[in-house]
Amino acid sequence: MKFWLSWGLGLAVMLMILVWGFSQWNLRYYIEYIGDRLELLAELRHDAIVEYFSTAEAELRFWSGNETMQETVAQMNAIWAAGADSVAEDLVRLYVSDNPNPAGYLLNLDDAGDGSAYSAIHSNIHGNARLFVTRRGYYDFFLIGPEGDIYYTVEKESDFATNLEQGPWRDSGLADAFRAAKNGQRGKVISISDMSAYAPSAGEPAIFMATALHDNEGSFIGVLALQLPTDRILGIMAYTSGMGDTGETYLVGEDLLMRSDSRFIPETSVLKQEVDSPTVKLALAGEQGRAVIKDYRGVDVHSAYLPLDIGNFRWAVMAEIDVDEVVDFAAAQRPGLSGALLLIYGLSLWSVWYWRGRRLPEDGGPGDVSALDISGDADGGGMSD
Predict the structure, then answer these.
(1) 160: exposed, middle or buried (C-beta count within 10 Å: 0-12, 13-18, 19+)?
(2) Between β-strands 204-214 and 289-294, what pairing exists: parallel, antiparallel or unpaired?
(3) Which end of the chain is more exposed for a tag (fewer CB within 10 A), N or C?
(4) CA 212 to chain centroid
């Protein structure tokens, strides 16, 4: 009994040590695996957003080099010079107040039919501009004079025919993009505003991209701008296939507010949810890596981070998953391991029993044949008296 107890306990302790060691190795393996995967996901999101902005930049450069756009702005400069205030009032009346189309469909009016020079220009460019924004997924298209007057928009929202230097939207992202493009006119700079709420678009988050327009003599005549919707960016960051139950990727701006939606917040978290985590601050400082932190929910997560520089601002690209899910994922391997170890334990005990049985005859035990024959005669005859 002592023999079997000692062997059984010894094997059990050895297997427990083996199980513990394998569990630790398995957990470290999955932590490393998940960390590598998070870094890859963050890089993929980063590259997808860079490509999105690069495509918009290329299309903006194409339109800014279009002679029709250049001639249009030059003609509108002359129209505004004749009386900016009265022209603006007339355009709002013709294309907004008296527009036969309901709100949200004002872009369907090509020509107000008033016979003015502006309406002739508008009907000439509006069809192509409208087709461009609807087919290419942009929100709006702007032609802006050198002094900040918004000559033309596709959507005809409340920013139409206002002034970005003195009007109600002088502190908006569009105004910021206009000024940056105007200041960088000589280098034909592409300016990009950070994501911010834009009141004329019902307060929805918006991004603006702008560049200067020049005439044939190279003189600055105005700015062409695009309003980029956030839907494409949100779609890129909201993709969670293969990320388990708690994995997510999101963006954070320099104000520590999200630039994409949280997976765990039912309503939109864009420009609402603050993320003041150590890894966000590292990414905004230009660093890249991964760490275990508490996220904006107060939950321990594996967090991969890297910076994303767009124009003159920086976003943090984050990819995270709950620590508990990684631990549970590693622990899910234990049932199969337990079955294998129980089999090994049983085989080990059987091996001890087997080899112990083989050694007993050598010690004169019950299995020794010579011990059974010592009472017989040398001839192998019957029993003696």
Answers:
(1) buried
(2) unpaired
(3) C
(4) 31
Do residues 261 and 250 make contact, with C-beta atoms less than 8 angstroms apart? yes
Kind plus residue range of the DSSP H or E element containing 333: none
For residue 161, which of 73, 93, 66 has the smallest C-alpha distance? Answer: 93
φ and ψ at 250, to 5 degrees?
A: -155, 170
Cα–Cα dist 238/138, whole Å: 19
The H-or-E segment that residue 39 falls in is helix 2-64
Dihedral, 61, 66, 71, 77 alpha carbons, nearest 10: -20
CA 37 from centroid of its chain's CA atoms: 14
Question: How many residues in the chain?
Answer: 385
DSSP of 227-254, one letter per residue? EEPSHHHHHHHT--TTSTTT-EEEEE-T
| DSSP SS3 for 141 | strand
Q: How confident is the model at residue 35 (pLDDT cuts 50, 70, 90)?
A: confident
Identify whether the C-beta of residue 141 lies closer than 8 Å to the C-beta of residue 188: no
Q: What's the pLDDT tens digit per position in 43-82?
A: 999 999 999 999 999 999 999 988 999 999 999 999 999 8
How far apart, in whole angstroms, are the C-alpha atoms of residue 208 and residue 224? Answer: 10
> What gap in Å lies between CA 385 and CA 377, rounded to an integer?
11
Query: The pTM is what?
Result: 0.80
Residue 381's Cα: distance from chain center in Å?
Answer: 95
The answer to whether 189 and 223 are in contact (CB under 8 A) is no
How far apart are the two ends of the chain, measured CA to CA in Å? 39
157: left (phi over 0), alpha (psi -120 to 50) or beta: beta
50 φ, ψ (degrees, to nearest 5): -60, -40
Cα R_g (the chain), whole angstroms: 38
Contact present, 326 and 302 (Cβ < 8 Å): yes
Asked if 315 contacts 307 with a C-beta cutoff of 8 angstroms, the reply is: yes
Going by pLDDT thresholds of 50, 70 and 90, the confidence category of residue 129 is very high
Instruction: Identify each DSSP E strand in the chain by its residue range.
Output: 140-144, 150-153, 191-192, 196-198, 204-214, 220-228, 248-252, 289-294, 300-310, 313-322
By CB neighbour count within 10 A (0-12 exposed, 13-18 middle, 19+ buried), where does 49 fall? Answer: buried
Asked whether 48 and 117 are in contact (CB, 8 A), the reply is: no
CA distance 239 to 181: 33
